[in-house]
């Protein structure tokens, strides 16, 4: 009988903990309007940041393509914007 009582008490404590955790999760989760506001503030939605990210990707891709096409170690360059501006390995 003592074991059954301990099991029931443990189940009740775990159930209460799960209930409290679920209630706190519901209270903390933002509503639909807050989600929409957060999405509008994300950098991906800003056209200027989107253009900047696209330009950065283009520069990176151009550098990688040039590194693949040449024997020069492009990692040694001091000025990454100019071709052939560093030591060769």
UniProtKB/TrEMBL annotation:
User: What keywords are assigned to this protein?
Assistant: ATP synthesis, Membrane, Mitochondrion, Mitochondrion inner membrane, Transmembrane, Transmembrane helix
Give the primary localization class.
Answer: mitochondrion
Q: Tell me the PANTHER family matching this sequence.
A: UBIQUINOL-CYTOCHROME-C REDUCTASE COMPLEX ASSEMBLY FACTOR 3
**Which Pfam families does its entry note?**
UQCC3
The family this protein is said to belong to: Belongs to the UQCC3 family.
Keyword Mitochondrion annotated:
yes
Which terms in the GO cellular component ontology are assigned? Answer: mitochondrial inner membrane
| Primary gene name | UQCC3
Q: Which InterPro entries match?
A: UQCC3
Protein's UniProt name:
Ubiquinol-cytochrome-c reductase complex assembly factor 3
Q: What does this protein do?
A: Required for the assembly of the ubiquinol-cytochrome c reductase complex (mitochondrial respiratory chain complex III or cytochrome b-c1 complex), mediating cytochrome b recruitment and probably stabilization within the complex. Thereby, plays an important role in ATP production by mitochondria. Cardiolipin-binding protein, it may also control the cardiolipin composition of mitochondria membranes and their morphology.
GO-annotated biological processes: ATP biosynthetic process; mitochondrial electron transport, ubiquinol to cytochrome c; mitochondrial respiratory chain complex III assembly
Q: How does it sit in the membrane?
A: Single-pass membrane protein
Q: What compartments host this protein? A: Mitochondrion inner membrane
